[in-house]
Amino acid sequence: MLRSSYVAGAWVDGDETFSVENPADETTVTELPATPLPEIERAILEARRSFDRGVWADLPVAERAKTLHAFFDAFAAHHDALIATMVAEAGQPARFAEMAQFQAGLAGARGTIDLYLSMRHEDTNPVPIDDLVRGRVALSVRRHEPVGVVTAITPYNGAIIMALQKLAPALMAGNSVILRPSPLTPLSSLIFGAAADAAGLPPGVLSVVVEGGSAGAELLTTHKAVDMVSFTGSTTVGRAILAQAAPTVKRVALELGGKSAQIYLPDAVERAAAGAIAVVAATAGQACVAATRMLVPQDRKDDVLDAVAKAYGALRVGPPDDPTAALGPVINAVARERCERIVAAAVADGATVVAGGGRPAGLERGYYVEPTVLDLPDNANPAAQQEIFGPVLGVLGYRDLDEAVAIANDSDYGLSGQVYGADTAAATAVARRLRTGAVNVNTGMYSAYAPSGGYKQSGLGRERGLEGIRAFQEVKHLAIGELK
After folding, report:
1. What pLDDT was estimated at residue 457?
2. What are the tens digits of pLDDT across the range 239-258?
3. Burial category of 300 from C-beta neighbours within 10 Å (exposed 0-12, middle 13-18, buried 19 and up)
4. Per the record's keyword annotation, is Transit peptide included, yes or no (predicted)?
5. Architecture of the CATH domain 261-447
6. b/e burial code for range 115-129 (CB count within 10 A of at least 16 → b)
7. What class is the 5-256+459-480 domain?
8. Are the C-beta atoms of residues 396 and 295 closer than 8 Å to each other?
9. What digits encode the pLDDT tens for the residues 68-116?
10. Which residues does the annotation mark as catalytic?
């Protein structure tokens, strides 16, 4: 397990340390040296220097692709240690770390290289006929160029997959990047420094800095040498980053909170229990896309509540090394207290706890929360409006599909959504009406070719897909004519 930071091609230590805690048992995984603030500034300045000198940005695209494949090969070579580290620092089941982070993230990163190579990054525009006749303009060119120096700030719940879906397009586009992982799960991201060394990335093209607080992140979002901030995390922090980036007019890409709805058409109500399990299984509800509002026909609501309560009652909560556990802990005491506080507020506003609602018996250490089902009286309830980021599901009834759509759209967020229906055409028609960045109709997909991102307060811009690559590029127009 690496225990220092990677700055401009070299490993550095710091005098101050911070604790990385295992949320499954509250033990200390390690005391990690924080990157000194002057070293974070050096990472920024070296990224600026590497970009301005073109040591990476000016390489032929095929060479960048070859080096990045070597970078991902080196990343993959640390598989066993990486999985163990993710389990320890995030309390995630090994299967989730393996499948949802390592394998999906790596496949997405390699797919991003292929997508970039298939795209045109310089193309011609039509020239107005008057300009052609007068001979003023012979050629009009639209060129996509790298933004420059990018700050990538990643969350605790998907440290590796979120880093990969930022690093792959940003580096492939020719940018220089400083990666700053969450202070709660910083260890796994240090693997990218080792991979950069092994692949021979030029110094300054990638740095990985770690800290226990936010001073470094604030420097990375305010420094005039940084051209772009790509952040995944809470809406509250996203607003702060927008404010910090404003004085220097940086480009900002944000994937923020969500309060996604899963809508069951009358012919798909039997699917609800399985959908409820998907909200909490493996992640303990700690996913920004988690569909924590379940919308079902009002006349079937009692049946659904009974089925979901039975399903949640059968789920075992436990540490990641328990093969029978369906979900582990939330990340820390603050996260657990937030779950408890919102459940209490929901009940005070008329909700009923149908299952769970407390801490599991027999787990005195670790930040565990019972998978909880709430019968919500309406969409104004706190549990229907606030992002909980824990294993808490609220069930709402609707009279008809127009009301279901209205309830789903009645949110400050718009990150994801789900619609289930045996009549696929009818379900798709509902999906088209949802004000959200992605909707899964009877299925789901994670792909380098499919964009993700939010409407409203769920974010700005897109990650993955063609749009996710363009997010890390500027557009330049060249008007070319002959000198008369």
Report:
1. 98
2. 999 999 999 999 999 999 99
3. middle
4. no
5. 3-Layer(aba) Sandwich (3.40)
6. bbeeeebeeeeebee
7. alpha beta
8. yes
9. 999 999 999 999 999 999 999 999 999 999 999 999 999 999 999 999 9
10. 255
